[in-house]
Input
Amino acid sequence: MERVCHINDILPGTSQGFRYSPFGHDDIFLVNQGGIIYGYRNSCPHWPGSTLPLKKGQYLDEYAKHIVCRGHGALFEIETGICISGPCRGERLTALSIEVDEHGNVFVVTA
Ligand code: FES
Output
């Protein structure tokens, strides 16, 4: 189990990437939706290994309703990681198991 951040590092309606890799991008990202933290690998099912954001931490669309891949515009449900629009419709992001302790520390249980 790996501590990634504190819940206050990701405000509701925002996202953030973590684990900067030797390849020059964050390996995983977290989204805070209404106080619940969801985590996924930063790899688009349309083109596995291809990362989602244009800028660090920007994984959500302008309404903060969906995760968006800037490659070809795929939209994913925040809660499930399922692609609901775009070239990989029906496929899903790889979900991480996330835990938040009583102090607000956010852990990745499996990755
Ligand atoms: S690489 Fe993500 S939509 Fe094409």
The longest strand covers residues 26-33.
